[in-house]
Amino acid sequence: MNAVVLNNVVKRYGRRLALNGLSLEIPRGSVCAMIGPNGCGKTTTMGVIAGLLMHEAGTVDVLGLGPFRAAKHAGHVSLMPQDAVPSLHVPIVDCLRYFAELQGLDRPQAKREAESCLSKVGLLDRASARFSELSHGMRRRFSIAQALLGNPKLILLDEPTSGLDPELVVQIRTLIESQRGRATLLVSSHILSELETMCDHAVFMEQGCVVRQGSMAELTNANSVVRMTLTHQPLMSALELGMQGCTLLWQEPVLTVHAPRSQPLEETNARCLRLLLEQSVGILQVDAGQSLEAAYMNLKQHRPRQ
Amino acid sequence: MLDARKLFVVARFELTEAIRSRLFAVAMSLYAVGAALGSYIFLKTMAAAETAARHSLAASMRIDESSLPQDLVREKALPMFASLVEDEAIRGELLRMPPLCIFYGYMTLSLVAALVLIISAGTIATDVASGATRYALFRCDRLTWALGKLLGQEAVLAAGLLLGALVAGGVGLTCDPHFQSDTWVWLLRTSFRAWLYANAYLGLFVGLSLMASSALQARAFALFCLIGLGIAHSIVTADWANARLPGLRYVGMLFPNAHHQALWSPNWGTYLPSAIALFVIGGLGFGLGHRVFRGRDA
User: In chain B, which end has fewer C-beta atoms inside a 10 angstrom radius, N or C?
Assistant: First the structure.
């Protein structure tokens, strides 16, 4: 069952084609990464899903209820927009209370929910501050807090960690991960290592289209590739001899082993580890699959430029 | 589908937000200062005219000033000005009103469209430009949100007009020795009429704001609309135009200016149709704006 299904969606801004027949499926309950270069249509896609942007063609289905309609979806879908100012004159806690009331909560519930969400993002001590008085990082946290109000079934997060310091990035990542299982999340970001740890699905986009989508395991070949971080380079000729049928790639300090699909990955892993230990090569880390970044770059390299 | 509870939530937030804004504070301060200064100058001018009239009348009639009526200008000069009004009921109403209320009412009705332009014309366009809509419109349908904003602005306007009435009344209380307590009631009544009149402009300007992409653009649209309405109303009600196109005068009913005078009438038969017409004009403006807004990107 999918939380979001977009089929051949077309969206133009004047003459510029922002979404060019985009088709997308986001499984219900997944944490899905949206990856692509600037201007590829990530924010537009989120806007179309949330009903903020009008598409010219194609079909949109959100939570199995058809295209976004406030009457059906309000309270079930939430969005963390990029660089949007909610209100300049009202304290942030009142802003959140207002949003919670709009989502259908009564006044006392909305107040509790607003304070709870501010607490989750560590902004409770700034509850009476206005949005204009917050730093960039605090604004991002406020934006995330409003997206978590109530119990949305679908949360769209547009670059939630951009411009944040490392400590905040970890906090926000933890917060997003805490939503796993409660809601479907669609997260766009340029930090692929971060998405790799947070997400279980990914969508690669380019020029308003989805060029590849699937589970993180599929996209990173987690069932056929092993990555080993080593202390030093092994003797590759000896290794290749012992790992027949596999493709080996050394890119200091990582050895990537591509196993044939017929061969169980555990077996490939065990064989390679034994050979490395025989060569007295220290093994610092073993990961299944290539990195998301490598998978993305691989796709970009093998895709003809349009 | 309109949601009454959300409508109230949006209107309440709009009122809270507007009242805390710098624009509201500046506009209201200017309006209050204007009301205070205008009322003060008017009362002083009235007092000076009264003194001058008493002096010259007593001198020309060779009588003592104390034998002249107490409120000479009001009793003798006001009926002269009121006789310029064709409608008998309105003329009677003007004669019953304290002069301060006539002055305040006239000034408010003349300036309220500009006040709406300054305070309310940019309201929705500001939210679209700042991205505030991207926080609200996935929680609430567009009609409820836009109508809530309109209602919030109506409350803002009512608060502003009430403030102006209180300031004018305060000036009257301190500077006018003949100030009567029923002046407060007349001032509130006048403010309510100005609010009714302003509703037409509010609906039109919010409608334009629903089509605009920035506050500046929305205010420019509103300014052109205000000027355009004034010019168009003058044309459709001009005798030369009606001589060529009989019935054109009735088109004039679609303009807020056409209902300016009827709002002074004590007769419900005159007053109510104009009040309804003003709401209809505002509603049409808002409706047209919403037609564009419901299909545009937010």
Answer: N
Stated pTM of the model:
0.87
Q: What is the four-CA torsion angle of B51, B54, B55, B59, rounded to 10 degrees?
A: 180
Q: Which residues in chain A are closer than 8 Å to B10, comparing Cβ atoms?
A: 102
pLDDT at B6 over 70: yes
Answer yes or no: do A90 and B16 touch at CB < 8 A.
Answer: yes
Interface A-B, measured as beta-carbon pairs within 8 A, has a size of 85
Nearest chain B Cα to A70, which residue? B141
DSSP states of A261-287: TTS-HHHHHHHHHHHHHHTT--EEEEE
What letter represents residue A144's amino acid? I
Which domain range does residue B56 map to? Answer: 4-294
* pLDDT tens, position by position, B52-84: 888 888 888 878 877 777 777 777 777 777 777
Which CATH number fits the domain A1-76+152-216, given the four candidates 3.30.70.1230, 3.30.200.20, 3.40.50.300, 3.30.450.280? 3.40.50.300
Residues of chain A with C-beta less than 8 angstroms from the C-beta of B122: none
| CATH architecture classification, A225-290 | 2-Layer Sandwich (3.30)
pLDDT tens column, B153-206: 999 999 999 999 999 999 999 988 888 889 999 999 999 999 999 999 999 999
Q: How many CB atoms are closer than 10 A to CB A293?
A: 15
* A73 has a chain B CB within 8 A of its CB: yes
